[in-house]
Amino acid sequence: MTDMLTVLAPDGATKKGFEAGLPDEELLHCYRTMLLVRSFDEICLKLQRAGRIGFSIPNLGIEATQVGAASALRKTDWIFPSYRDFGMALYHGIPAVEMMHNMFGNAEDSAKGRQMPVHFSFVEPIHFYSISSPIGTHLPHAVGAAHASKLRGEDTVHLVSFGDGGTSSLGFHSGLNFAAVWKSPVVFLCQNNGYAISCPSEQQTASDGYAVKAEAYGMPHATVDGNDLFAVRQAVLEAAERARRGEGPTLIEAVTFRMGGHSTSDDPTKYVPAELVEEWRQKDPVDRFRRFLERKGLMTPEQDEAMRADTLAEIDRAAKAAEATAAPGLETIFSDVFAEVPDHIRKQGEFLFDLSQRRGEADAGDGEFPL
Ligand SMILES: Cc1ncc(C[n+]2csc(CCOP(=O)(O)OP(=O)(O)O)c2C)c(N)n1
User: Fold this and answer.
1) Least crowded by CB within 10 Å, which of 103, 205, 240, 344?
2) Positions of E strands within 18-170
3) What separation in angstroms does the CA of 119 have from each of 69, 131, 225?
């Protein structure tokens, strides 16, 4: 593999001469965001096991990649996330409750309960494009959006994040090819977390890593330690600056490891050797960053404990509020598609509302057209 950029050692020491270039409160915000992601995971796992939500995606081990990358972006930039990018949303101030509304698919969910859980989409405070389940389809979308913004004369960067498995998709090829030819302002962030569900990297590609694939498209690339928040941040900052200067896209490979299951439907003990998980636990991105903060005098064990309790309470409140929010109205099944509801859809709607009313499930007023 090509040289991998690392700044922060597992014991929290940084390379000689390294300057984080971030104020103390920003460093603490990065750490708190990673703790929020862990709390979100923990609570969602319990909710899913208790049958109160249908599904969730764990992020354990990937937090520094998400937060390091997000910290290098401006609020005016666009994020085209994978389904394992909770930290990017939380870092930019998307309230946890907004994400929980999606997990419960309730009336406050930005997709009105029509999406799977974890398929967040937000417009404010950062443009967070809807997560799509089909692997790799969002890469050409990001390139199209970036090209449009370039034509408008903006200096917006579009970061698109995907897994190692995503590099085997058609979207990866067409996305990278178009972006390089058009010099689109895109940062391609490949999160190489070792596995695509149960498919290990050595069965995913015969290349020497994933970053090198950029050479075939005529695009610069970088390989970074994905468990090192500063390394990811530095690579994304450089790629974003290049994009803003009009010099086009970059492919970054963040080498990291998913220490949990692919999703709540997965059992990784069936295919991930326990020794490998233990090896990566020693490089845990959250512990690493905490040790850095401790060395800098910004965090004591007591403060850490208090912050952990605080983030867990914040996510718990968010989950309770979302669970207490009503389900989307019946009419949302039919709304937002046609300006004028066609006759056959109207008939189906009337049949459904009538049935629901007879069963005592619909509220008065539900089902009034036009929707
Ligand atoms: C086009 C397509 N093929 C297959 C799947 C099923 N699938 C869901 S996630 C996944 C693995 C993706 O792995 P990777 O891109 O490495 O991301 P990671 O889950 O490791 O973050 C697959 C094959 C899918 N969602 N879309």
Assistant:
1) 344
2) 78-80, 127-128, 158-163
3) 20, 5, 27
Query: Token pair of 360, please?
Result: 């005592």
The atom number, within ligand 1, closest to the CA of 193 reads 20
Atom of ligand 1 nearest to the CA of 169: 1
Compute the distance from residue 75 Cα to the ligand 1 centre, in Å. Answer: 28
- The atom of ligand 1 lying closest to the CA of 195 is 20
Domains of the chain (ranges; CATH) run 24-323 (3.40.50.970), 329-371 (no CATH)
Interior CA angle at 220 toward 23 and 156, to 5°? Answer: 55
Strand order of the sheet with strand 250-255?
127-128, 78-80, 158-163, 186-192, 250-255, 221-225
User: Over the stretch 323-371, which tens digit does the pLDDT of each residue have?
Assistant: 999 999 888 888 888 999 999 999 998 898 888 888 877 665 555 544 3
What pairing do the DSSP bridges indicate for beta strands 127-128 and 78-80?
parallel
Ligand 1 centroid from CA 3, angstroms? 27
Instruction: Please name the residue that has the structure tokens 């569900």.
Output: 197
How many Cβ atoms from other residues are within 10 Å of residue 213's Cβ? Answer: 21
Shortest-distance Cα residue to atom 13 of ligand 1:
196
Q: Please give the distance, rounded to the nearest whole angstrom, from the Cα atom of residue 191 to the centre of ligand 1.
A: 12
Which residue's CA is minimally distant from atom 25 of ligand 1? 134
From the CB of 135, is ligand 1 less than 6 Å away?
A: yes
What sections of 50-114 are H helices per DSSP?
Answer: 63-70, 86-91, 96-104
User: 10 Å Cβ neighbour count for 218?
Assistant: 12
Other Cβ atoms less than 10 A from the Cβ of 106: the count is 19
Query: What count of other Cβ atoms lies within 10 Å of the Cβ of residue 21?
Result: 10
Please state the pTM of the whole predicted model.
Answer: 0.95
| Helices then strands, each counted (H, E), the chain | 13, 8
| pLDDT, tens digit (0-9, with 9 covering 90-100), for 18-60 | 999 999 999 999 999 999 999 999 999 999 999 999 999 999 9
Q: Which amino acid is at 239?
A: A
